[in-house]
Amino acid sequence: MPEKYYNASMRIILASKSPRRLEIMRRHGIEPILMPTDTDETLFEGIEMCEAAETLAERKARACYEQLQSAKSDYSDCIIIGADTIVYKNEIMGKPSDYDDAFRMLSLIRNTHHYVVTGVALIDVPTAECKVFSDVTEVFCKDYTDEQIAEYIEKEQPYDKAGSYAIQGPFGEYIDHIDGDYENVVGLPYYRIAEALNL
Predict the structure, then answer these.
(1) With a threshold of 0.85, does the pTM exceed it?
(2) Domains in the chain, CATH or no CATH each
(3) Which among 40, 84, 101, 160 is annotated as catalytic?
(4) How many C-beta atoms surround the C-beta of residue 3 within 10 A?
């Protein structure tokens, strides 16, 4: 990677439709171009948690890069950010498929700790160079009842959230503490990105 991977004249493309990732970028003074992609999220059996998150993030970033090749607009001054967040507790937990899956996930992390991993892929559009990394936060949950799980699922509809919860929402009351970056749990480790891009 070049020593100065990003400069102030470059624009950032966020290859994500996550409102949480957009909010984090805006909170740090960056208004990215939104360019979400539909990518295959199939992973091979036995994949390690960081590799899984990084693989999915890179797929999103590269799919976005391919879209730009046929775009009529000029994106040669851009950096693409692809990201993917997973929850890990004995297994990789992505977004729940249905109510029962969400209930199972929330039961699994109850009164114990789990890991939240966000993979990030950065593609420098002018050179097509790609940098991939991940950040891990350990999250400790309080004990809660089956009834509280059911109430949370019914009210919050957690089907677009890895592990079935959002730490910044009502489920936050069931979080005892974390070891690591809070924004990483929300969905984007901004400070790791800023370090990589020399922001």
Answers:
(1) yes
(2) 11-197 (3.90.950.10)
(3) 84
(4) 5
Find out whether 12 and 32 touch, Cβ atoms under 8 Å.
yes
> Is 74 an active-site residue?
no
Check residues 73 and 108 and name the one with the higher pLDDT: 108
Cα(81)–Cα(124) distance, integer angstroms: 9
Beta strands in the chain (DSSP E): 11-14, 33-34, 78-88, 92-93, 113-124, 129-141, 175-179
| Four-point Cα dihedral 159, 162, 166, 170, nearest 10 | 50
Q: Report pLDDT digits (tens) over 46-105.
A: 899 999 999 999 999 999 999 998 887 888 899 999 999 999 999 999 889 999 999 999
Q: Which two tokens stand for residue 21?
A: 């990732």
Of 1, 39, 34, the closest CA to residue 19 belongs to 34
Dihedral of the CA atoms 41, 46, 49, 53 (nearest 10)?
-20
CA distances to 9, 22, 74, 136 from 171, rounded to whole Å, are 39, 21, 42, 20
| 174 neighbors 156 (Cβ within 8 angstroms) | no
What is the spatial distance between Cα 60 and Cα 37, in angstroms, rounded to a whole number?
6
User: Do 37 and 60 meet the contact criterion of CB atoms below 8 Å apart?
Assistant: yes
**Cα gap 65→55, rounded to integer Å:** 15
Distances (CA, A) of 193 to 57, 106, 114, 151, 153: 13, 29, 23, 36, 32
